Automatic annotation (TrEMBL), chains A, B:
<dbReference type="InterPro" id="IPR032264">
    <property type="entry name" value="MenD_middle"/>
</dbReference>
<comment type="pathway">
    <text>Quinol/quinone metabolism; menaquinone biosynthesis.</text>
</comment>
<keyword id="KW-0479">Metal-binding</keyword>
<dbReference type="GO" id="GO:0070204">
    <property type="term" value="F:2-succinyl-5-enolpyruvyl-6-hydroxy-3-cyclohexene-1-carboxylic-acid synthase activity"/>
</dbReference>
<comment type="similarity">
    <text>Belongs to the TPP enzyme family. MenD subfamily.</text>
</comment>
<keyword id="KW-0786">Thiamine pyrophosphate</keyword>
<keyword id="KW-0808">Transferase</keyword>
<keyword id="KW-0464">Manganese</keyword>
<dbReference type="InterPro" id="IPR029061">
    <property type="entry name" value="THDP-binding"/>
</dbReference>
<dbReference type="GO" id="GO:0030145">
    <property type="term" value="F:manganese ion binding"/>
</dbReference>
<feature type="domain" description="Thiamine pyrophosphate enzyme N-terminal TPP-binding">
    <location>
        <begin position="13"/>
        <end position="124"/>
    </location>
</feature>
<comment type="function">
    <text>Catalyzes the thiamine diphosphate-dependent decarboxylation of 2-oxoglutarate and the subsequent addition of the resulting succinic semialdehyde-thiamine pyrophosphate anion to isochorismate to yield 2-succinyl-5-enolpyruvyl-6-hydroxy-3-cyclohexene-1-carboxylate (SEPHCHC).</text>
</comment>
<protein>
    <recommendedName>
        <fullName>2-succinyl-5-enolpyruvyl-6-hydroxy-3-cyclohexene-1-carboxylate synthase</fullName>
        <ecNumber>2.2.1.9</ecNumber>
    </recommendedName>
</protein>
<dbReference type="InterPro" id="IPR029035">
    <property type="entry name" value="DHS-like_NAD/FAD-binding_dom"/>
</dbReference>
<dbReference type="InterPro" id="IPR012001">
    <property type="entry name" value="Thiamin_PyroP_enz_TPP-bd_dom"/>
</dbReference>
<comment type="subunit">
    <text>Homodimer.</text>
</comment>
<dbReference type="GO" id="GO:0000287">
    <property type="term" value="F:magnesium ion binding"/>
</dbReference>
């Protein structure tokens, strides 16, 4: 048996099984050591191969596809620091629970830690940030080793896809020569053609008695709220709305909860809390005695502080991934159960319990805040806040809106409010990095159209390399670049009061004319001068293919002032109303 | 004692000590959690602060400064994936033995692994790739904690700088509010102003008896060679040349050994081995019975194979860093000793032992190969090989030549031969990545002028973000961009025979017009049409500040043919000569 026969049979078995598990997309970065796996993957009829030279962009692109499809995506790179460039995306995938199958080619054992070229220590390269790490056995064509390659592959895909979803890492030692024997029959597997081992993964559930007890417990409170953070579960939205209706509790809906858009009944949805939970009178009036929380921690710092300030309230945190997404140290019950199932079962057992006055107070305060916030639509200058308000009106139905971290995600929270359009809202909120955003959005756009990305200039700069995918693969994407020439969020932080080093350390103006780089990547670039041109260009670009960048220049100082003014006016009106109430 | 007083005193003590240990350069990426450390560093009068938004580029930039100065450079970033972006540079620093002090800000303990924003697991984030990891104690202003901050800082710098040099990682938990009390006296330390604890690090040496025994051992062989890989030790060049002179051994000098350039006596230097060690007759004629090897493994694969084919020869591998840079599995003695000291001591004890015929054979074959290789200077078309031959003639005295991996480093090896100019040649040869090359070279250029960077288009693309440093800090750099529109090295590998997937998986043409991005970064761009324009532009650009990019377009196919033709002609001539010899 030749080396190449063993190599080919082992890898072909692995790749055939990978496809059988349902993996469709593989993102490959060119390299030498990974040659046999890359060639065999390219030969497989059912795998879509995406080539990306920069492994950091490659890994975020894969993350984007996996986010949009909720199915494992495979990554492949050569040995050395190539694999280390995946680290940020692997960590993001781990925290935000996205299934990735990271495949790294490695030098064989005898060429490790001996100064051989392009050899680093790839064993447990990503530490505890992957759900599973396997140092693969050297390729061999024996019955056991073929069964081994198929079993590990199936197990890796199942591990990545089971709750909480996340990344897994398989490291393959490959010896030279690295060329497989290309043969059209290589994927014909000797037995169990339909997949080697089927893996069924259940969801967490509780007993009916436990559901009944929790339901009774919750129903004993009158002032309840439901808090929904980032969550991507297609059944969840309807179930939680039904539960809120039964309990008569308001739903505090983070923009990533997918509850702010859609045709559902929005009558219990509270969307302007980030503005009004900065007001002491509102916080006093709205004190809950029970909180039911789903998904990741919400974006709003005001909401997090509100939860922390209400530690006497019972707090049920429901997590289908059995994690601990609870930085407020105020949970009283941690419930490891599928969220949609939890809502359904609690709703079935519960009697209406909420106090209509309390619910109405939330709804009234929310309405008042929204009235004040709607003043943003009157702003004539280009404004970061107004941009998101405009998007609720202008985005086409069924679009995906991907939002960068730092300021854009906060403005999304403040200004992208309840609407009837079926808009999917996404962001990288595992580790909240400004890295890899362009690539993640392009990964999403490659499977979900139309796609809009809103991000700041530092975030855009950080992943300019990601734009290449749009050029090479003709991926349509609409990028709304908010350019305030530096780090806008720092103006909101205490260091803004230390002017001595502020611009150098935090403001960090880059003074870049991004039109050049958009041209390099064959994109259409528009510098937006006013709101009329904005809406015209946004509409016109729907007919344009490929990369489209609309740059909206703002200033950090006026942005700060605009936000402060709005929060102050919200706060003033709410205080007036609530003081009036108590008279 | 307020929180801010404790925070300030602790960090100021750390930063004051950092400067006392000799650290001059700190590369900071903007972020919120790292605010107190960034502000205190910016306030220190003796630290040079470099701001870089992309942490991957930041870390390679720091690596470049540390490579050029051989002194520890500090890196600072905020919590989250920012720190993960350092991973490739940390690994490169570890393998290539470059001292870095990585400082990461982290959430405090109570906000870890609980879904708090921008929080990842930073404990042992870089695994075994750092020499030392410390989870710092939370800041406090007690005498013990101030002594602790100073001690850890001194120890970190000493650990990074002691042999083998490498990266260390300190992780700082910071609680809000993150603002220190800015006070001009904050760096006044209560005691031992000149540095808290002085650390003296020795070098490895052997006893005189051991040196004498090794010396006698080596002198008992007649056919000896000295192989010098990448090594950066200012005393080494003269010592190894003196030793070669005593032993009458040839020195096989890798381009990164720093032995190919300089005013030293080059009479034992063999520089064209990569061409002639592909010839079986040469390999037969030049079989050694003893090999003394210094530094990293040489770049040349032909040389590595030659060493592996001569396993009956004694092989002494000398390593001041007590590592195991020996992938050939043919070392007979591993000697942990300072390289310059080893040469000196062995030279003192040794009697001339080499066989002049054997030495002359090396020199004659080398001369013949160089004659054939010099044909490259007659090539009229733009050619990757000729570029390096031209650089030996055209680079100004005392310049630094930084070379990208993949093809350029190999062409450097083949065509950048012995010269009297004092040119420092550098590359990232720890893990041989194509990542971070622009930034590493700019880090070098920020402390060492004039600086020339030669790299391919995929490598340039991979770190385009690095160019921003040149614009923001007016760093002068001459970039020679060899654009063969894809991965040129793969044409030399066996997969080139598999045309079906070759261009897609390995050729990977990007079709980018890089003039746009050079313009965005305020650079001067020239598309080189012929050799005359090349030499004119190279000369003219010496008078131009900032970023200068000269693009040389070549084709991968003609490059492959040119290399093959040259190797064939070298081989043919050598065979003719050696067969003539044996007649």
């Amino acid at each position: 048996m030749s080396h190449q026969e063993g190599l080919t049979a082992y890898i072909a078995a692995f790749v055939a099984e990978l496809s059988k598990t349902g993996v469709k997309d593989v993102v490959i970065s060119p390299g030498s050591r990974s040659t046999p796996m890359a060639l065999v993957m390219a030969e497989h009829p059912d795998l879509r191969i995406h080539i990306q030279v920069d492994e950091r962009s490659a890994s975020f692109f894969a993350l984007g596809i996996a986010k949009a499809t909720r199915k494992p995506v495979a990554l492949l790179c050569t040995s050395g620091t190539a694999a280390a460039n995946y680290y940020p995306a692997v960590i993001e995938a781990s925290i935000s629970r996205i299934p990735l199958i990271v495949l790294t080619a490695d030098r064989p054992h005898e060429l490790r830690d001996v100064g051989a070229p392009q050899a680093i220590d790839q064993i447990h390269l990503y530490g505890k940030n992957v759900k599973w790490f396997v140092e693969m056995a050297p390729p061999e064509k024996t019955e056991d080793m073929i069964r081994y390659a198929r079993t590990v592959c199936g197990r890796a895909a199942a591990t990545a896809a089971s709750y909480p979803q996340g990344p897994v890492h398989l490291n393959f030692p490959f010896r030279e020569p690295l060329i497989p024997i290309m043969d059209e029959n290589m994927f014909e597997l000797p037995e169990r053609v339909g997949g080697y081992v089927e893996i069924e993964t259940g969801r967490l559930s509780l007993s009916d008695q436990t559901f009944a007890a929790i339901s009774e417990d919750i129903a004993s409170y009158k002032k309840g709220i439901i808090v929904c953070g980032q969550l991507d579960n297609s059944e969840f939205a309807n179930e939680v709305i039904a539960l809120a209706d039964i309990l008569q509790f308001p739903i505090i809906a983070d923009p990533l909860s997918q509850l702010r858009s859609g045709e559902h009944d929005g009558q219990h949805i509270i969307d302007a809390y980030d503005a009004f939970l900065r007001n002491e009178d509102a916080k006093e009036a709205l004190k809950p005695d029970v909180i039911i929380r789903f998904g990741a921690m919400p974006i709003s710092k005001a909401l997090t502080i509100f939860i922390k300030e209400n530690r006497t309230a019972r707090q049920f945190v429901v997590d289908s991934g059995a994690g601990w997404r609870e930085p407020t140290m105020s949970a009283s019950e941690m419930i490891y159960c599928d969220e949609a199932l939890f809502c359904k079962k609690i709703g079935e057992a519960a009697a209406p319990s909420g106090n209509p006055d309390y619910l109405n107070k939330w709804l009234t305060v929310n309405e008042l805040a929204k009235e004040q916030l709607s003043a943003i639509s009157q702003v004539e200058d280009l404004s970061e806040g107004k941009l998101f308000q405009q998007l609720t009106e202008m985005l086409p139905e069924d679009s995906t809106l991907f939002v960068g971290n730092s300021m854009p995600i906060r403005d999304l929270d403040s200004f992208f409010l309840l609407n009837k359009k079926n808009i999917k809202v996404m962001a990288n909120r595992g580790a909240n990095g400004i890295d890899g955003i362009v690539s993640t959005a392009l990964g999403v756009a490659s499977v979900s159209q139309p796609c809009y990305l809103v991000l700041g200039d530092l975030t855009f700069y950080h992943d300019l390399n990601g734009l290449l995918a749009s050029k090479l693969y003709n991926i349509d994407i609409n990028i709304l670049l908010i350019n305030n020439n530096g780090g806008g969020i720092f103006s909101f932080l205490p260091q803004a009061k230390e002017p001595k080093h502020f611009e150098k350390l935090f403001g960090t103006p880059l003074d870049l004319d991004f039109s050049h780089v958009v041209e390099m990547y064959n994109g259409k670039y528009d510098l937006i001068k006013d709101w009329e041109q904005f809406s015209e260009t946004l509409a016109k670009n729907q007919e344009v293919d490929g990369l489209k960048v609309m740059e909206i220049r703002t200033t950090r100082d006026s942005n700060l002032k605009e936000h402060r003014d709005l929060w102050n006016s919200v706060s003033r009106e709410i205080t007036t109303m609530l003081k009036g109430d108590t008279k």
